[in-house]
């Protein structure tokens, strides 16, 4: 998502998006997630191709021609195995970047010609951005492709990550590395719908987007946009398979 023309934290709160299914804690541990991604929709490759558009997103699904024109990218949805439960590895981008400045993101980026697969892209980018060694990562699945308004088609790669004492953020791109409990992000009571309105050439425009604000140690992390959309995609998949 490009640098927004609005402050997302001050966008109108439509409603807390709390009508969803509560996912039992037992479905949010490492063994349960391994099982889920192994069997869901026929396995990793099938689930990555599944059509699962966010109902909040009013844009039509891209055509095959439009998809071919998008720049491939991948992100690592890293689930860190902490004693208190899984956490999601996230970064705050530095303020001077042209794209995603100051925003909350997964480690990731555009695919390089030498990358053999989206998994290779996600692992390489995570190593470059936060110092995460590929040997500490166990890939368990992928989420549906996510197309951004800036011309990227993103593969979210879901992985279990061994506990790391300290990450090593790349200072040019990453201002901060932090972790948010998976249980918090998968709880629909912590999901918001927000709306921004503007005038474009005399035409009234509106856009709705998801947000998952999280507070920790006095810091406020406003998770929104593509990152929140991909987290909500994970939530919808897990909720659809709830026993």
From TrEMBL:
PROSITE patterns: NUDIX (PS51462). InterPro entries: CoAse, NUDIX_hydrolase-like_dom_sf, NUDIX_hydrolase_dom. Keywords: Hydrolase, Magnesium, Manganese, Metal-binding. It holds the Pfam family NUDIX. The keyword DNA damage does not apply. GO terms for molecular function: coenzyme A diphosphatase activity; metal ion binding. It comes from the Bacteria. SUPFAM superfamilies: Nudix. Residues 70-201 form the Nudix hydrolase domain. Its cofactor is Mn(2+); Mg(2+). PANTHER family: MITOCHONDRIAL COENZYME A DIPHOSPHATASE NUDT8, NUDIX HYDROLASE. This is CoA pyrophosphatase.
């Amino acid at each position: 998502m490009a640098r927004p023309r609005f402050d997302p934290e001050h966008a109108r709160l439509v409603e807390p998006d709390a009508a969803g299914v509560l996912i039992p804690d037992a479905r949010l541990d490492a063994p349960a997630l391994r099982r889920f991604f192994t069997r869901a929709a026929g396995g990793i490759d099938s689930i990555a191709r599944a059509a699962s558009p966010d109902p909040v997103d009013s844009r039509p699904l891209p055509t095959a021609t439009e998809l071919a024109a998008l720049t491939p990218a991948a992100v690592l949805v890293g689930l860190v195995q902490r004693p208190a439960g899984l956490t999601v590895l996230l970064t705050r981008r530095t303020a001077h970047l042209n794209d995603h400045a100051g925003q909350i993101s997964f480690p990731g980026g555009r695919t390089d010609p030498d990358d053999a697969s989206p998994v290779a892209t996600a692992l390489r980018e995570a190593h470059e951005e936060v110092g995460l060694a590929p040997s500490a990562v166990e890939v368990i699945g992928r989420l549906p492709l996510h197309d951004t308004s800036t011309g990227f088609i993103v593969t979210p790669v879901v992985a279990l990550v061994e506990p790391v004492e300290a990450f090593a953020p790349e200072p040019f791109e990453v201002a901060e590395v932090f972790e948010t409990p998976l249980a918090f992000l998968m709880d629909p009571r912590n999901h918001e719908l927000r709306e921004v309105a503007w005038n474009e050439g005399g035409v009234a425009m509106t856009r709705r987007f998801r947000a998952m604000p999280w507070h920790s140690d006095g810091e406020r992390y406003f998770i929104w946009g593509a990152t929140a959309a991909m987290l909500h995609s994970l939530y919808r998949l897990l909720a659809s398979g709830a026993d």
